[in-house]
């Protein structure tokens, strides 16, 4: 690597935003350290891999097809919510690749709170100025005017808009504001001659963390009976605040509504009916169903139809967060609560969901000791951060979901009976896809329509043979498996109808006409064997993913990624 390349590499690694670059084949050719941190995969491991193998729900590859920029888009990577900009890379008029620049927007929480503090300070200042009869001016540490009351501007016979940003010595005669910011010494009760009049003034330096950041001056005019309060807003701060508020509002709201739930079978109509009825209340809801049936989608829909729809919707996967981190993730912590605790502390997911809804997915995998703390939240509407000395009141609506038999877990002393009855206030069961085959045709139609929009394709449907095969398949991965199968097929189909040989090997008819259809690569065969192994172990453990990970001798996070990948 030459010196220039080395310096460019170092510069990109130092960039706060994450960066991933793919070539025209959608394979990763570069990722910086921020991308490694967010995705959780090293640059070496990502290099040369297809982007969708690294980030399954990415849309970066779409840029290669449509050649358009995708700005301010949202996606999730694990538990992180990301804002991303995607841009095609052209070389001699041809698309040579694409670049994605993205950022974890959970940090918007901190920025938004800081900006809210700024706005509150401005509001309080404005309210105070309504009741004073003084001319007030503020300058920054270099003596440039950042704020002035309208009455003071009128007294100077100047336009307020022209004053802001000018050096104070050019606007106010005999001023010493620029001197105060240098000496740091307040001047109170001084006489200053302005436009031929004597005025009593005071000048006070403004300090932050021991450093002078500006000064405020106050002038009393004997010939002015009233002062109209008008603080020139800090335009940069206000514009940033408006942007963050808009982005945060989009992020915190749920993504799906009842119209997004596909299914006209009697079982699905009943499940949606129950969900719509309970949406208007604040009762706790327990959603039960196999993996891939759409429990999270139903939780989003309940929130979207509730009186809390404009408030936060927070999702927590109780199985995906390590046991030792779950308490801090849910309840937050105070500064100094433990080694490495963030300065100022950190709010937990329950606190962030205040006035809104928290969705606890895979509630059956929550450790028993954490169940006690959740029970207190449900009973007392109160929680404590780690290291706190007193509780905090909270107003949240709790929705939980599981694919396990909670009564069986109670019998095994793995789940608290008292918590179960707190969660089971309103129970909604989503039927597996194999028990509602009449929905399969409609699901295929809607999913192909959705995938056509994502891929820019024009697939019209599936062949009669595929339709028959779909109706006969058991669908252990339910709707998630069906979508995974269709998405995979749409990446290899050559015509406008999906044929049997476009499907994964496990769905193909291996002995049709006495031949074996060798449609898959060795890698695809390995993936299919891996998928079947995971399904068998999950069936053996009755869906217990922790035990399944132990039997398969893989980390839980690895198992969760593969379950998502294979639509299990």
Give a verbal description of the structure.
The structure is a single chain. The protein is an alpha/beta fold and 568 residues long. β8 (187-194) and β9 (197-208) form a beta hairpin. α6 packs across α11 (235-252), α12 packs across α13 (295-304) and α19 (440-455) crosses α21. The protein has 24 helices and 21 strands. It has a 5-stranded antiparallel beta sheet. A 5-stranded antiparallel beta sheet has the order 7-6-10-9-8. Strands 12-15-18-11-19 form a 5-stranded parallel beta sheet. The protein has 4 domains: 18-104, 2-Layer Sandwich (Beta-Lactamase); 132-228, Beta-Lactamase, CATH 3.30.450.20; 253-429, 3-Layer(aba) Sandwich (Rossmann fold); 440-566, Helicase, Ruva Protein, domain 3.
Question: In short, what is this structure?
Answer:
With 568 residues, this protein is α/β, with parallel strands linked by helices.
